[in-house]
Amino acid sequence: MRMARKLSTIQRSFLLNISGAYSTTATTALQVTLGTAQLHLQLQQESRFINICRFNQPLSIKDLPLPDEIEIKVSSWAFHLSKHLKQSQISLEDGGNSKNFINIYSDGSKTELGVGCAFCVFVGQNITHRWSARLSNKKTAFQAEIIALRESVKFAKNLNTDQVVNIHVDNRARIQAVSNFIKPNKNTPRNIKKILLYHSNIEITWIMAHAGNKGNEVADILAKQAKLHSIWGRWLD
Hints:
This protein is of the alpha/beta class. It folds into two domains: 1-59, no CATH class; 90-236, Nucleotidyltransferase, domain 5. It is built from seven helices and seven strands, in the order H-H-H-E-E-E-E-H-E-H-H-E-H-E. It has helices at residues 2-19, 27-34, 39-53, 141-158, 172-179, 187-198, 214-225; strands at residues 90-94, 102-111, 114-123, 126-135, 165-169, 202-206, 234-235. It has a seven-stranded mixed sheet with strand order 1-6-5-2-3-4-7, sandwiched between helices. A hairpin with a 2-residue loop joins strand 2 and strand 3. The longest helix has 18 residues, at 2-19. The mean pLDDT is 81. InterPro entries: RNaseH-like_sf, RNaseH_domain, RNaseH_sf. This is RNase H type-1 domain-containing protein. Pfam families: RNase_H. Residues 98-228 form the RNase H type-1 domain.
């Protein structure tokens, strides 16, 4: 982990220069925006390639990521550039006082105990669904939050309702990863945007973290508890 942090510090200066972003921008947000993997993961990939191809060493099964955790860089885009999201579908304003009937709160968490993500669904004042998953320890908190957002959007799509479904996230960078680009170059943000393009009733809005909002607090607790799970994704209700 110490070496990973050192490599991340080295990589950060280059990412800031390439992107022209503010110096306060999170490194993980820069990596997602520019479609660049973490430097220590790139080195691990090169190391494993050499071990397999040159030294004929087998790859341990524990080194393989779970299928749902793989982030693939994509280049093609199936939609015409004129197709775009409605203005109301993406909001960086505080949506903590939403009056909509269906609200989904998502969150991700990373500590020394592991990485987890989760979301919970409120219909009116009642929690109707809760979902959480444990992720690879190599995932960042930002990646956990993006995965939580993806699963929230997929759930909202499957509700098959014409009512507005508000998805609340407490990290603006997550929203920007989906909305800032006409063609997001990462698979997860792109999948999220595809769903939004076809389901205009799904809206993503920012919410202030730890501001006493019940849904946000529940999602935060679920994400932290998810680190104790041994499987990918489980319904708690």
